[in-house]
Design brief:
It is found in: Endoplasmic reticulum membrane. By secondary structure, this protein is α+β, with helices and mostly antiparallel strands. Helix content is 48%, strand content 12%. Strand 7 and strand 8 form a beta hairpin.
Length: 765
């Protein structure tokens, strides 16, 4: 097969063109092929002409006015039901087709603009570096992002596939119909499509409970955005490497999180009206960020509203009634641009410090930054849409913080306040004075007084505040004790997300005793929840995703009941030559235990090689990277580079997974260095593939020796071989932050765990 991927700067390699997003044109495509192949493109085929010598020429209809990066064509032997795939996997396309129909209907309605082309095909590409691509009328996907087998795919596979399709289809309007003027504003389409994955699924697929997972995006964004090497959401770029680098967590995840904050701030109705105005006003054109802000301002006084919908006219009629101050405590029309410029034109995010004294709440803001150079946090100021609730009322109160410090007055004294309700805002909160203690008391005695998202948000904030010395590690650990009663997915996974990295740092240093103590603490904390998991596929999507997660953790951590059960199941499965049907949610735990022995590993690999189910293959692949058999780990990385038995697209995942394995981290770092020149040729400088490998392979080092070794390697590169990439700075900063964390907190961690095991021992007597 042959298939194109033109974003961002590759159309010029296929045909002469003004290859920049603002040069929109109509494209008429003809492709000459052999009769044994088919050809597809953005538009429907108008006719096929027979040429002398038995070749065929397909003529495609002329496209609408569009950017070069969205042109696409494929020549292949694929079969199709509107979803194209290799013939032997065509039976796994039904779910994607159904989802695409449902989601296109949703967007037609949400944007109030009908889909612009006569058709939309989806194609599953067998080896594809990009996760997926929104080519107008012909979106392309990895097989794992599109193919679904109802018997073999898991709940998280279904969620993942539906989200990817929702993302690419959101682009058919946001990106394709209205396109950013230049790549500096890439976030306009990517942040928006990432955000729409959640809005569209929330309405079209309520049973997938997608709102249980949105916070994770904001935590991911904050991880890169808390380093001084971060960049503003909208940032100047000139060359292809810098353009590639824009495809990162800041453009996608931070973009989505600030849009979510804005929607909460304006109300979902007002946000939707503004989005429709923006799309109608700029159809077939190019925009910059300020065009979006203008469309979201004064939404009810726009001429476009007349042909809008009844529900929007009603919304505006209600809104124009005199109702006293609006909920953001300001009478003037909101200046969306002034607020949002502070979130898109400066990098980083604010830390809001809250101190309650009686009825008075003192607020101050500063940039949250992991650094030992305080001068780097100066000169930043955000307009922050604060939300808060208190022990005295369930109402969500709102306040726009525009200044460095401010004071709020509560109607009465309260036991606790919680800011950033459900984490709808992209900021962290520090509760000064007695603030954290009152939250810890609340979580210990009545944690369900707060939502699961609020609890996840508190776990995240308290541990992140340890990193910058605002909170003592003991305080964060005391808060974590309540997790023994936690059951909601986002809070549980965030608990793991803050505690597990602590022992991951230790695994790469010689401190087995403390490492094992820490691992023991985490297993103890979640033991009750792990013991309650059934080894079946029952429950909601969130319960099922949580089950897979917990059982995998328990097995990797050698929790005896889990290992025994997984071993029995693996042996049964192996004895049946892989025909026994295991519950999907538990396969990962079972495979990981099986891959520990050479025979088990080889058996898994044989099954991997012949499997047609992408989701099963991907679980087998991960399990094979978790083994302690070093020769196997090395061999897997080499095979992915080869790209025959294992696909090249999977190489980054394999290398990163090996780097997280205590028996493999040196191998992954050596592999990255030894094959650097091949990798940057294959995957391109600045690509998210390369930066993901660079940061993930190195981000668990915490010694000066390793920092020197990492600097030694990256410092020896030239500009042509990647020395200017942002991910290298991110790597240095992350290791420096790890070193600071370990220097400060290791003794405290040791003391706290000792004190706790002493206390537990006494309770047992």
């Amino acid at each position: 097969m042959a298939s194109t991927q033109f974003e961002a700067t590759f159309a010029r390699a296929a045909f002469p063109c003004f290859d920049e997003p603002a040069f929109k044109a109509n494209f008429t495509i003809r492709i000459i092929r052999e009769p044994r192949h088919i050809a597809i493109s953005n538009m429907p085929k108008v006719k096929t002409v027979e040429l002398p010598g038995g070749l065929l020429e397909d003529h495609f209809d002329t496209t609408v006015k569009m950017s070069t990066y969205l042109v696409a064509y494929i020549v292949s032997d694929f079969l199709s039901i509107s979803v194209y795939a290799v013939p032997e996997k065509i039976n796994q396309t039904a779910y994607a087709l159904d989802a695409a129909v449902k989601l296109l209907d949703f967007y037609d309605d949400y944007y109030n603009i009908p889909y612009q082309l006569p058709k939309h095909d989806l194609a599953a590409i067998p080896d594809f570096q990009a996760g997926a691509m929104e080519n107008w009328g012909l979106s392309t996907y990895r097989e794992t992002g599109l193919l679904f087998d109802p018997d073999k795919s898991s709940a998280s596979d279904k969620l993942g596939i539906t989200k990817v399709i929702a993302h690419e289809l959101a682009h058919q309007w946001f990106g394709n119909l209205v396109t950013m003027e230049w790549w500096n504003d890439l976030w306009l389409k990517e942040g928006f499509a990432k955000f729409m994955e959640y809005i569209s699924l929330d309405i079209s697929y309520p049973e997938l409970h997608v709102d249980d997972f949105f916070l994770g995006k904001c935590f991911d964004a904050m991880e890169v955005d808390s380093l001084s090497s971060s960049h503003p959401v909208s940032t100047p770029v000139e060359n292809p490497m810098q353009i590639q680098e824009m495809f990162d967590d800041v453009s996608y995840d931070k973009g989505a999180c600030i849009l979510n904050m804005l929607r909460d701030f304006l109300t979902p109705e007002a946000f939707e009206i503004g989005i429709i105005q923006y799309l109608k006003r700029y159809s077939y054109q190019n925009t910059v960020s300020s065009h979006l802000w203008e469309s979201l301002t004064n939404i009810c006084s726009s001429d476009d509203l007349d042909e809008g919908r009844m529900k929007h006219r009603e919304f505006c009629a209600k809104r124009n009634l005199p109702s006293g101050a609006s909920k953001w405590q300001s009478d003037d029309e909101l200046d969306v641009r002034a607020v949002m410029d502070t979130w898109t034109l400066q990098e980083g995010f604010p830390l809001v410090t809250v101190e309650v004294r009686g009825r008075e709440v003192r607020l101050s803001q500063e940039r949250y930054l992991k650094t030992d150079d305080p001068s780097l946090t100066e000169g930043f100021l955000w307009q922050i849409p604060l939300t808060y609730m208190t022990s005295a009322s369930n109402t969500i109160h709102r306040f726009l913080l525009k200044t460095k410090t401010d004071v709020l007055y509560l109607p009465e004294e309260v036991d606790w306040v919680k800011f950033n309700v459900d984490m709808s805002g992209y900021y962290m909160v520090h509760y000064a004075g007695e603030g954290w203690n009152s939250i810890i008391r609340l979580l210990q005695h009545n944690h369900t007084a707060l939502s699961g998202n609020d609890r996840a948000n508190l776990i995240h904030n308290v541990f992140q505040l340890v990193s910058i010395g605002k909170v003592r590690l003991d305080t964060a650990l005391e808060l974590s004790l309540y997790l023994s009663r936690e059951t909601e997915i986002m809070a549980v996974t965030q608990g793991f997300g803050e505690l597990v990295p602590l022992y991951k740092l230790m695994e790469k240093r010689d401190m087995a005793a403390l490492e094992n103590q820490m691992k023991g603490y985490i297993v103890d904390l979640f033991r009750g929840l792990i013991d309650r998991q059934e080894w079946t596929d029952s429950g909601s999507v969130s319960e099922r995703v949580l089950r897979s997660y917990l059982l995998l953790f328990a097995c990797v951590r050698n929790y005896a009941p889990c290992v025994t059960k997984a071993t029995q199941l693996f042996n049964k499965w192996k004895d049946s030559d892989g025909t026994l049907s295991l519950p999907v949610d538990i396969t990962m735990a079972v495979f990981v235990i099986g891959a520990r022995t050479p025979e088990g590993w080889d058996f898994l690999f044989e099954k991997y090689r012949h499997s047609m189910q992408m989701s099963v293959k991907s679980r087998m692949k991960t399990a094979m990277t978790v083994t302690s058999l070093q020769d196997k780990l090395k061999w897997m990385m080499e095979q992915s580079l080869h790209g025959e038995v294992m696909k090249t697209q999977d190489l980054p995942g394999v290398v990163v997974s090996v780097s997280k394995n205590p028996h493999g981290y040196k191998l992954a770092w050596d592999f990255l260095q030894a094959n650097w020149h091949t990798l940057i040729k294959k995957f391109d400088l600045g690509s998210s593939t390369i930066s993901h490998m660079v940061t993930q392979v190195t981000n668990q080092y915490s010694t000066r020796e390793m920092l020197d070794e990492v600097r030694g390697f990256f410092g020896s590169l030239t500009e042509e071989t990647g020395s200017e990439m942002r991910c290298i700075q991110q790597t240095y900063e992350t290791i420096e932050d790890n070193i600071r964390w370990m220097d400060t907190n290791l003794p405290l961690l040791q003391a706290w765990l000792n004190k706790r095991s002493h206390k537990v021992a006494h309770e047992d007597l």
